[in-house]
Specification:
Elements lengths: L3 H6 L4 H4 L2 H9 L4 H15 L2 H11 L5 H21 L6
Helix pairs in contact: 4-6, 5-6
Length: 92
């Protein structure tokens, strides 16, 4: 079984694992999927509130690939976090 750390180290194969809508959003912003994914994991660990952690754990339950599900959730969380903070909304 692959763990999150292995996914984040294997930058060559990371982009194809992320959903196409995420890749498109990152491409529009000219962001590297691998770099963004690493930043998402770090920032989620530092900034996510209890509700986000709870949602992540719930999201992972029953997942066929927990590491990939975790990575996808963290990347989507970071995209949403950046959208909220760039539009002047307070961070939850």
């Amino acid at each position: 079984m692959v763990v999150l750390g292995q996914l984040l180290r294997d930058t060559q194969h990371l982009a194809p694992l992320l959903p196409s809508d995420v890749i498109e959003r990152l491409a529009e912003r000219r962001l590297s999927p691998a770099g963004f994914a690493r930043a998402a994991a770090i920032e989620f660990d530092r900034l996510a509130d209890d509700a986000a952690w709870s949602t992540l754990v719930s999201h992972l339950q029953g997942s066929e690939d927990p590491a990939l599900a975790c990575l996808e959730y963290m990347v989507r969380w970071k995209l949403a976090f950046e959208e909220r903070t760039s539009h002047g909304h307070p961070v939850e």
